[in-house]
Design brief:
The protein is of the alpha/beta class. 32% of the residues lie in helices and 26% in strands. Bound molecules: adenosine-5'-triphosphate. It holds the Pfam family ABC_tran.
């Protein structure tokens, strides 16, 4: 569960990024975050990982109150939150397999369980046969599928995807959405910031619209609501 109450955040340069956010997201929901460029969507996501800290307000993520979180507890929070970005962010010199196993080795899993889990998540994204490839040898859509596999390898309760289809063609984007829905169907909360009108209007989910650091709309099975 995610709960944000009265979240305000101003960057050091004086830009007000969040201006009183109040929202609750239950475990297992699928939520689109929409809104104009610069509205505060990425900042909102960063708050959930404690990459940014609010000036005021209370945030609870996976039952942890982030305001009391000690520095040494931050890695535990992040293990329980998978992150997917528009630009994939794979490690270019590592194979597909290593990009994923690397995320698991950090939490001291046994070699056998790492192997099993890597192949399991590669199977889920349909890339078992590309385990030995390096990112440069993959298409954009395949790279994003690896990034998703890596993000869920630790079985996080929450997956945040920041414009996951932003660099992909429409057909590949639908494939990514199918995978995100499958992950959501296993009980993982998915929060996806997007500018894709087509996706939001076709695959109906909760829509939270942010403008100027404020939630201006929060609808069950909502519409994108902006011009393409
Ligand atoms: N590190 C930073 N330092 C200063 N200002 C920032 C920083 N990051 C973002 N901002 C500003 O904060 C505001 C919110 O930015 P944010 O990235 O959250 O918007 P966004 O809704 O994700 O935009 P986009 O859809 O373009 O990704 C913008 O005005 C942006 O310029």
């Amino acid at each position: 569960m995610i709960d944000m109450q009265d979240i305000y955040m101003t960057y050091p340069n004086g830009v007000v990024a969040l201006n009183g956010i109040n929202v609750t997201i239950e475990q297992g929901e699928f939520v689109y975050i929409v809104g104009p460029s610069g509205a505060g969507k990425s900042t909102f996501s960063k708050m959930l990982l404690r990459e940014e800290v609010p000036d005021r307000g209370r945030i609870i993520v996976n039952n942890k109150d982030l305001s009391n979180l000690k520095m040494k507890e931050i890695p535990y929070l992040r293990r329980d939150v998978g992150m997917v970005y528009q630009d994939f962010r794979l490690l270019p010199r590592l194979t597909v397999y290593e990009n994923i196993s690397f995320a698991l080795e950090v939490i001291e899993e046994s070699p056998k369980s790492i192997r099993r889990r890597v192949m399991e998540v590669l199977d889920l994204v349909g890339l078992k046969n590309k385990a030995r490839f390096i990112p440069d040898e993959l298409s954009g859509g395949e790279q994003q599928r690896v990034a998703i596999a890596r993000a869920i390898a630790n079985r996080p309760q929450l997956l945040i995807a920041d414009e996951p289809t932003g660099n992909l063609d429409p057909e590949t984007s639908w494939e990514i959405m199918r995978i995100l829905e499958e992950i959501n169907n296993t009980g993982t909360t998915v929060i996806m910031a997007t500018h894709s009108r087509e996706i939001v209007n076709a695959i109906k989910k909760r829509v939270i619209a942010i403008e100027d650091g404020l939630i201006v709309r929060d609808e069950h099975r909502g519409e994108y609501g902006y011009e393409a």
